[in-house]
Amino acid sequence: MSYETILVEQRDAVTLITLNRPQALNALNSQVLKDLTQAFAAYDADPSQRCAVLTGSGEKAFAAGADIKEMVDKDAADFFLEDFFSGWQSGVVGTRKPWIAAVAGFALGGGCELAMMADFIIAADTAKFGQPEIKLGVAPGMGGSQRLTRAVGKAKAMEMCLTGRMMDATEAERASLVSRVVPAADLVEEALKAAALIASMPPMAAMVNKEMVNLAFETGLAQSIQIERRLFQILAATEDKKEGMTAFVEKRPGVWKGR
Ligand code: HXC
């Protein structure tokens, strides 16, 4: 399948998705959302694919934000009636299988918000994260004010949203916005390596682990600990649980059935 604004390739069990509007610093317009929605749905539906990596084309940007040129003439009623940005939740955040954002260069506004939709972010040493929407007279609209605050805490999130200040890769790692920083030249290979490792795990367990960690952001502690226990008990009924534990006892690698 070919897309207008992204490139998609499969490397064994890993899907690599590349934002491909380098002339606009990969700004996120409606077509990008449409393409990503289809690509993530195809990834989720393909049993041969077990992890995905999303990255930007060009060295300069992961994505420099929602497409300002697409938004400049819209008024409040347009945004409301289209429920603008709601598609990101269903089309991207709703992905059930794990995926990693590999960020080099600018991840600004919607670009930062898109990276934060990933299960985790690996950053190049060139990465710069920011929520500069205030300079345009607006505010984050794709979950950024909430996800950034949960990731880095109130002080840094508030400063970034109120001043538009960018955070470099070192600060982003220190603040737990990204899981680690790698040299820019190695970014995609490092992300693919991490994805291959995830892809080698029992796939249902990967999906359940993802759901469990996300629960921490969506539910109260007592309730999420109970849901964690129930999900653990469901996983215990899979053939891969039996295989995983038997393989450990027999000192051999597991062979996964995916159920
Ligand atoms: C549309 C964009 C864009 C964007 C860059 N471009 N960002 N187009 N939407 N968000 C385009 C530029 O217009 C230009 O194309 C080309 O990409 C290269 O950008 P330059 O500005 O020439 O590059 P440079 O001088 O290196 O500056 C890089 C930059 C700057 C600092 C990243 O481009 C910038 O500030 N971009 C906007 C960042 C931003 O404000 N993001 C948040 C958007 S709002 P042309 O053809 O013109 O030369 C958002 C959520 C909004 O994300 C929610 C509200 C409801």
From TrEMBL:
It catalyses: a (3S)-3-hydroxyacyl-CoA = a (2E)-enoyl-CoA + H2O; a 4-saturated-(3S)-3-hydroxyacyl-CoA = a (3E)-enoyl-CoA + H2O. Its EC number is 4.2.1.17. CDD domains: crotonase-like. One of its GO terms (molecular function) is enoyl-CoA hydratase activity. One of its GO terms (biological process) is fatty acid beta-oxidation. Pfam families: ECH_1. It is an enzyme of class 4 (lyase). Keywords: Fatty acid metabolism, Lipid metabolism, Lyase. Transmembrane segments: none annotated. Could possibly oxidize fatty acids using specific components. Belongs to the enoyl-CoA hydratase/isomerase family. This is enoyl-CoA hydratase. It comes from Sphingobium amiense.
